């Protein structure tokens, strides 16, 4: 009898690979366990067992495995099913999904580099002999490869030693140059819930008559938090008389006080204000009921709630219900760094049951999160995370929330799998029998279409919390203003007037300028030449703060030119404007005010983003200029005026979603104005005041925008009516890319006829000296998706077999938007 296992290797292979195992191994191994296996000439990889069976491979002889790495599966059966779905839907290899899905520290291979964790303290007794040997060696040499460790320990089976050291948090593997993200933890206490009623409360106080010090602390806490459930920082509490750390500790030990470790947002949210349970108003209550009713018959529900309508409180209620039924909850967010306020709020509600999966987490932190979810630990009931958290090993998901579901950051572009987290969340929900709630103030057309056609439930929430009015939106025609000479730089007289007014009332201003439009480009007035990137087909962008010309695609930079490189003329000018230009003009116009800028350049550093936000929140900045970063769900109380510097950049972007995106961006940024009683004002500067999107933003007409855009999508054959698959060819040889693209397009047209667009060069056709060319495949409703993908796969296979096109890479992107 011979036994075999199929293994998913972390490589872009079409198939699983088969290895031979002994009877004992076959009985021990289960799908989802890791094995170390040889692959290629001399390499060792870690793979995941997908199947144990007795059928030998027909075209090659199965090699034996090197060793088994786990005692129990680290990947669940549901995950394996999910991976296989993703690979087939997004047309990539399961090995590529594997790489994205589990922490890289789980995937040791011969080239893996092992290092000691910075500043690690080790107790010798905790280590086995082999572990200690390796630990010692790593103190002498900063890093070792697996092969070197094999020599060092003089045995072949070193991976378990390394795995164990990773779990003990002593070594790191494949440490990328991460900025170590260390959340700031603050300890809070609050009175235990069981004392929230009068009776138990009196009993407690009676009982504490014998412990006057503890009684005093309880009263001090009341004084600070009120009798409600609000929590108080321990560091604040200990400042009060009698509240020594010892007394507080004994109250915690007795379960009278509950301790909360809260990852405080890095910019001081007002925790006092948001602590305790917020009561739903009647509109929220009704929305909640409608969602629950919809979940009785449907798996997915779209919550369309305008900005500031209090969607989060509704989420909290739903999360609470799911975890009280013993289920896990996944809360997906577009980008954690931008939503620290929200996380602080959820942590305050749910304390230590919340686990965060951050895009800035290090390899070891990822391992820890993964293990906690796998072991279904108490602190992993609620996972808040970015798109990749859909890959965590959930056991029993009851609810998935996709907040800001319209955000494009849910889509992964590179590398494969090029998945959309919102869409795969719906699939994951189905596999786990979990309900899925999509939330947005400006839903994506696709989701709204699904709701409109009863594929999803739909719930509307169109009152702002506390009945705060939506801001007033006013359009400023800058063509007219230019004609009448009422522009100062890029500011209309109207915008300047309102900025002055706002500042004189000690209120704040946000100015939005999208960098995706033109950034300042240097141009010669004599010959028209503008300096280009030598590696990419783009003009270099002028950055005044360091007086450089930079490429936004590859990072190439050179000093600012004093004269034209083509004709030596000194008549140079900058064309277009970005956030930096706006900032410079503002500083000249309002020299006595503080101006801040938030874009990729100013938020790159470790805490760059938090610094700007907290300065703005503490009102150290009067005017904040920014790119789309300022549109995210931030809640600033003192902003009265929002200015959109130029709506036209957004509208003219060459993409079929440009209009929808512009509407979403403008409405989201408008939502930052006037979030308290005083009504906010939004000014939109544009050359096209009658553009339908600008009009729809000004009247907050989502439905009108939806109907009109939908009609265009129908006419021009775009989603949701047609599905899209994009094939990108790229390579260093221009003519090979060109000819290859022609060959591929002709073959595809033979099969799919008029539903093939291209080949076409993208707006930037060369990046880092590689040429790009795209082919777009449109798939009408009713045409089988899986058959289409099979056919595309076959055509690509013939393409790859042609010698002349070797060196031309193909990238498939399913739903490339
Ligand atoms: Zn010139
Ligand atoms: Zn470049």
Report on the architecture of this protein.
This protein is an alpha/beta fold. α2 crosses α3 (94-101), α12 (282-297) packs across α13 (311-324) and α26 runs antiparallel to α27 (785-800). Residues 176-183 and 265-276 have low confidence and may be disordered. Bound molecules: zinc ion (2 copies). Residues 524, 526-527, 529, 564, 566-567, 569 line the site of one zinc ion (ZN).
Q: Approximately how much beta-strand content do the residues carry?
A: 15-25%
Work out the number of β strands: 37
**What is the typical, i.e. mean, pLDDT?**
87
Biggest β-sheet description? 7 strands, parallel
Pairing-aware structural class of the strands and helices?
A: alpha/beta
Number of helices in the DSSP assignment: 27
Strand order of the largest sheet: 15-16-14-17-18-13-19
What structural keywords apply?
22% strand; binds zinc ion; alpha/beta; globular; 817 residues; 37 strands; seven-stranded parallel beta sheet
Question: What is the element layout, followed by pairings?
Answer:
Layout (H helix, E strand, L loop, with lengths): L2 E6 L8 E5 L1 H6 L5 E6 L3 E11 L9 E2 L2 E2 L8 H13 L4 H8 L11 E4 L12 H12 L2 E3 H8 L5 H9 L3 E3 L10 E8 L6 H10 L4 H14 L6 E2 H4 L7 H9 L3 E8 L6 H4 L7 H16 L2 E6 L5 H14 L3 E5 L7 H11 L3 E4 L5 H12 L7 E4 L11 E7 L17 H12 L2 E6 L4 H8 L4 E5 L10 E6 H6 L3 E2 L2 E2 H12 L3 E5 L8 E4 L16 E3 L4 E3 L6 E3 L12 E4 L3 H11 L5 E4 L9 H10 L5 E4 L12 E6 L3 H4 L6 H13 L10 E6 L5 H7 L3 H14 L6 E10 L2 H19 L3 E5 L5 E2 L2 E11 L4 H16 L8 E6 L3
Parallel strand pairs: 2-5, 13-18, 13-19, 14-16, 14-17, 15-16, 17-18, 20-32, 23-30, 23-31, 29-30, 31-32
Antiparallel strand pairs: 1-2, 1-4, 3-4, 3-6, 7-8, 7-9, 10-11, 10-12, 21-22, 24-28, 25-26, 26-27, 33-36, 33-37, 34-36, 35-36
Helix pairs in contact: 2-3, 12-13, 23-24, 26-27
One zinc ion binds next to loops.
């Amino acid at each position: 009898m011979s036994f075999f296992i199929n293994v998913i290797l972390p490589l872009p292979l079409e198939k699983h690979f088969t290895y031979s195992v002994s009877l004992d191994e076959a009985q021990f191994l289960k799908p989802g366990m890791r094995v170390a296996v040889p692959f290629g000439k001399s390499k060792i990889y870690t793979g995941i067992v997908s199947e144990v069976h007795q059928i030998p491979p027909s075209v090659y002889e199965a090699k034996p495995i090197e060793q088994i790495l786990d005692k129990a599966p680290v990947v669940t059966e549901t995950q394996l099913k999910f991976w296989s779905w993703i690979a087939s839907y997004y047309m990539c290899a399961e090995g590529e999904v594997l790489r994205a899905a589990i922490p890289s520290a789980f995937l040791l291979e011969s080239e893996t580099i092992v290092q000691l964790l910075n500043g690690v303290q080790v107790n010798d007794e905790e280590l086995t002999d082999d572990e200690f040997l390796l630990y010692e060696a790593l103190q002498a040499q900063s890093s070792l490869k697996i092969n070197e460790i094999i020599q060092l320990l003089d045995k072949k089976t070193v991976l378990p030693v390394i795995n164990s050291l990773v779990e003990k948090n002593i070594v790191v593997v494949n440490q990328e140059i991460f900025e170590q993200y260390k959340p700031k933890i603050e300890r809070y206490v609050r009175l235990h819930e069981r004392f929230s009623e009068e009776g138990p409360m009196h009993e407690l106080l009676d009982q504490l008559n014998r412990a006057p010090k503890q009684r005093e602390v309880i009263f001090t806490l009341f004084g600070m938090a009120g009798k409600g459930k609000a929590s108080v920082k321990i560091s604040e509490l200990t400042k009060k008389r009698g509240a020594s750390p010892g007394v507080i500790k004994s109250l915690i030990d007795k379960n009278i006080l509950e301790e909360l470790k809260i990852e405080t947002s890095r910019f001081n949210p007002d925790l006092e204000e948001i602590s305790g349970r917020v009561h739903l108003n009647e509109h929220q209550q009704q929305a909640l009921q409608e969602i629950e009713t919809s979940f009785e018959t449907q798996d997915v529900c779209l919550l369309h709630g305008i900005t500031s309508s209090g969607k989060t409180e509704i989420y909290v209620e739903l999360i609470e219900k799911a975890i009280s039924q013993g289920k896990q909850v996944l809360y997906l967010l577009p980008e954690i760094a931008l939503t620290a306020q929200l996380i602080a709020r959820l942590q305050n509600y749910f304390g230590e049951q919340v686990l965060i999966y951050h895009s800035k987490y290090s390899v070891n932190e990822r391992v820890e999160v993964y293990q906690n979810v796998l072991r279904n630990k108490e602190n992993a009931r609620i996972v808040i995370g970015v798109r990749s958290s859909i890959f965590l090993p959930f056991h029993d998901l009851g609810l998935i929330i996709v907040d800001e579901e319209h955000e494009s950051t849910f889509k992964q572009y590179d590398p494969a799998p090029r998945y959309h987290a919102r869409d795969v969340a719906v699939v994951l929900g189905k596999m786990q029998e979990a309900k899925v709630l999509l939330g947005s103030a400006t839903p994506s057309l696709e989701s709204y279409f699904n709701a409109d056609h009863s594929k999803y439930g739909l719930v509307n929430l169109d009152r702002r919390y506390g009945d705060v009015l939506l801001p007033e939106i006013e359009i400023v025609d800058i063509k007219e203003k230019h004609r009448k000479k009422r522009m100062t730089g890029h500011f209309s007289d109207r915008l300047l007037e309102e900025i002055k007014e706002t500042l004189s009332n000690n209120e704040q201003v946000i100015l939005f300028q999208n960098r995706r439009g033109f950034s300042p480009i240097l141009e010669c007035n004599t010959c028209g030449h503008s300096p280009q990137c030598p590696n990419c087909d783009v003009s270099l962008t002028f950055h005044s703060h360091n007086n450089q010309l930079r490429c936004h695609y590859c990072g190439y930079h050179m000093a600012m030119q004093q004269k034209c490189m083509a004709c030596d003329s000194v008549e140079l000018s900058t064309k277009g404007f970005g956030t930096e230009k706006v900032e410079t003009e503002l500083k000249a116009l309002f020299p006595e005010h503080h101006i801040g800028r938030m874009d990729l350049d100013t938020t790159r550093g470790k805490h760059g983003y938090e610094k700007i936000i907290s300065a703005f929140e503490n009102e150290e900045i009067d005017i904040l200029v920014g790119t789309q970063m300022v549109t995210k769900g931030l809640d600033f109380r003192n902003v009265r005026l929002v200015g959109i510097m130029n709506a036209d950049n957004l509208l003219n972007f060459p993409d079929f979603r440009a209009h929808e995106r512009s509407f979403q961006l403008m409405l989201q940024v408008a939502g930052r104005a006037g979030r308290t009683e005083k009504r906010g004002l939004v000014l939109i500067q544009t050359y096209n005041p009658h553009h339908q999107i600008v009009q729809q933003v000004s009247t907050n007409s989502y439905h009108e925008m939806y109907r009109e855009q939908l009609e265009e999508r129908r006419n021009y054959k775009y989603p949701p009516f047609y599905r899209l698959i994009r094939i990108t060819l790229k390579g260093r040889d221009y003519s090979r890319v060109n000819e290859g693209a022609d060959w591929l397009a002709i073959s595809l047209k033979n099969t799919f006829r008029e539903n093939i667009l291209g080949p076409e060069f993208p707006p930037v056709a060369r990046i880092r000296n590689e040429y790009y060319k795209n082919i777009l495949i449109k798939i009408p409703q009713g045409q089988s998706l899986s058959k289409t993908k099979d056919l595309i796969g076959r055509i690509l296979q013939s393409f790859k077999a042609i010698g002349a096109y070797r060196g031309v890479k193909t990238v498939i992107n399913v739903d490339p938007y």
